[in-house]
């Protein structure tokens, strides 16, 4: 590739970054800026490449400044869910790695792929090497659709939402919240079953540590079969039954058990990590973050909870392995060593064997019968193969996880596309989990998809994971 072509490729990349940065600007200003970024290298690239580069750098700096102002203007407004992906605004914690407003750039497109910010702790112009042995470098956000339910339903009514509900055959509109208490305190791990008129179970779930369970009527059926259902709640030898419960229901169904219950102390943590070649840009950092998380959770909760960890890894059909599982262990150092031994390889095409990985994780591991929380962190950057039998299996496994009280908590890495985002959020909501996503703020790895969510806070990934685990495990 000649020098002019390299310059044009670099400017094209800058133009795309500017477009992303100015999504909240007025349309007219956005058009002018994109035209400037496009025409400058075309008109002056052959005769004055250095001037074109300077102009593009200045334009990118202006775009970043305008985007920062727009983000600031929006931060004080309504933080409810947005249904327009292009209108999503993020805020970030100053303690995490932040975006740099420096407009410096390289002629090398590969260097541009490292992001706009220098590595955490470094100034631009210093060493460009990240230290993957130090935790707290990756940045991430959280969005919980079960907590923002109306916004989630609104999003699913958008063109993008309807396309993805049809694509994955997930139709979560008919949901019932069940709140279970005993002696005024929430009951964790109570079994909740939604039944048809004939007594057949439609959906099963377990209450979380706040005593809340979500059950679905026809999650994989767009039409549904009836409007009212039976509900049963059991814990130990206690059983409560309710009939003719409308689904959906405006308010949660409140259930009070008559006898006091004892809260379980078991905490099962499973890490299910994609180790295909496409994860190579972030895997070493993820291993460092996850090892730090496991140690911190054990240090903070080891005296109060019986913590077990299972580290599992997967690739794709035809690779050296499809699933590499490790059983639950209470030896945290052993789990950390298993994480350390992994590397990225294989893959090839975009989809991976997510269904095989989930099947092993949910069906072939000994999860605790009674637990404060069972958390499955699914770290991935690609969807399962979009085949009818695979989609059906994903649905079955999601249903099994919900019935067993296993909260699927996806962690979206660089490369995740829109279809994958929706599947991850479908699985999280169906099992009472939450959606986590890596962001560009760290400058590590490839580009991360801008999610179709409202405003969320960006934190260091390890801190966010510890917060999420502690929240699900709190008494």
UniProtKB/TrEMBL annotation:
PROSITE patterns: VWFA (PS50234). Residues 52-141 are annotated as: Disordered. It comes from the Bacteria. Residues 81-95, 123-134 have a biased composition (Basic and acidic residues). It comes from Paenibacillus rhizovicinus. Keywords: Secreted, Signal. Its main location: secreted. The keyword Signal applies. It is found in: Secreted. Residues 268-472 form the VWFA domain. This is VWA domain-containing protein. Gene3D superfamilies: von Willebrand factor, type A domain. InterPro entries: HMCN1-like_VWA, Thr-specific_kinase-like, VWF_A, vWFA_dom_sf. Residues 52-80 have a biased composition (Low complexity).
């Amino acid at each position: 590739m000649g020098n002019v072509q390299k310059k044009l490729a670099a400017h094209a990349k800058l133009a795309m970054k500017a477009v992303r940065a100015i999504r909240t600007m007025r349309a007219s200003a956005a058009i002018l800026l994109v035209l400037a970024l496009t025409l400058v290298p075309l008109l002056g690239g052959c005769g004055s490449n250095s001037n074109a580069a300077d102009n593009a750098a200045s334009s990118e700096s202006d775009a970043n400044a305008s985007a920062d102002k727009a983000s600031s203007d929006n931060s004080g407004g309504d933080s409810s869910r947005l249904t327009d992906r292009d209108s999503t605004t993020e805020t970030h914690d100053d303690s995490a790695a932040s975006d740099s407003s420096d407009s410096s750039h390289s002629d090398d497109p590969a260097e541009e792929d490292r992001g706009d910010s220098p590595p955490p702790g470094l100034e631009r112009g210093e060493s460009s090497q990240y230290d993957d042995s130090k935790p707290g470098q990756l940045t991430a956000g959280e969005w919980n659709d079960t907590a923002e339910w109306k916004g989630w339903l609104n999003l699913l009514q958008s063109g993008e939402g309807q396309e993805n509900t049809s694509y994955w055959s997930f139709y979560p509109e008919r949901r019932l919240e069940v709140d279970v208490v005993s002696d005024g305190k929430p009951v964790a791990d109570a079994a909740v079953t939604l039944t048809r008129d004939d007594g057949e179970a439609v959906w099963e779930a377990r209450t979380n540590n706040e005593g809340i369970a979500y059950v679905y009527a026809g999650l994989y059926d767009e039409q549904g079969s009836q409007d009212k259902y039976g509900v049963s709640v059991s814990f130990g030898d206690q059983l409560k039954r309710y009939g003719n419960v409308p689904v959906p229901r405006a308010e949660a169904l409140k259930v009070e058990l008559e006898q006091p219950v004892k809260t379980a102390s078991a905490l099962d943590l499973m890490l299910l990590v994609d180790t295909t070649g496409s994860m190579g840009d972030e895997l070493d950092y993820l291993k460092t973050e996850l090892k730090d998380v496991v140690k911190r959770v054990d240090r903070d909760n080891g005296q109060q909870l019986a913590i077990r960890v299972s580290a599992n890894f997967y690739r794709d059909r035809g690779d050296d392995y499809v699933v590499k599982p490790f059983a639950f262990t209470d030896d945290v150092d052993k789990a950390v060593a298993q994480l350390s031994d992994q590397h990225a390889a294989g893959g090839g095409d975009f989809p991976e064997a997510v269904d095989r990985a989930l099947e092993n994780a949910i069906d072939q591991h000994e999860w605790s019968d009674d637990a404060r929380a069972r958390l499955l962190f699914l770290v991935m950057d690609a969807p399962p193969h979009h085949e009818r039998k695979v989609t059906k299996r994903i649905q079955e496994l999601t249903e099994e996880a919900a019935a067993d009280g296993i909260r699927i908590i996806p962690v979206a890495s660089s490369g995740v596309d829109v279809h994958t985002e929706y599947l991850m959020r479908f699985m999280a909501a169906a099992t009472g989990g939450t959606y986590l996503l890596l962001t560009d703020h760290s400058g590590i790895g490839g580009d991360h998809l801008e999610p179709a969510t409202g405003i969320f806070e960006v934190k260091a990934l390890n801190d966010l994971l510890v917060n999420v685990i502690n929240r699900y495990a709190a008494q």
